[in-house]
């Protein structure tokens, strides 16, 4: 009798499926701070030093500017590495341009002139787009004035 009972119990034992016992141990995930610690340790190996008193950092990409207000800036001149950490804001160059003109040095004034020329080219381009529709209307055959014919107008063009 014990043997039959034992076989019954052995048949009931299974891993997973209906009637199995739930897992009691909760899986613990690593915190994301470990990534930050690894980054900081790597930066220490490179030899970065904090640069104090920087109020704003602007990174220019085409016509978009990534702007950091009161960032933490670290640099390693030997490794040619700059680290800017903080919360970034993405802005258009047109929005930020009046506020940063006084921050630009004499080297960047030429770049600023080039940007201004590009904006002028873009602005008249929009205006030209409006005038091309008027020019397209000129390509159409004009209305005839009462009493005139194409032959008469062509003869006048040849005689003059």
Automatic annotation (TrEMBL):
UniProt protein name: Nascent polypeptide-associated complex subunit beta
Region listing for Disordered, in residue ranges: 123-160
Family in the record: Belongs to the NAC-beta family.
SMART domains: NAC
Subunit structure: Part of the nascent polypeptide-associated complex (NAC).
Keywords, in A-Z order: Transcription, Transcription regulation
Pfam families: NAC
Protein source organism: Liquidambar formosana (Formosan gum)
UniProt keyword Transcription present: yes
Domain of life per record: Eukaryota
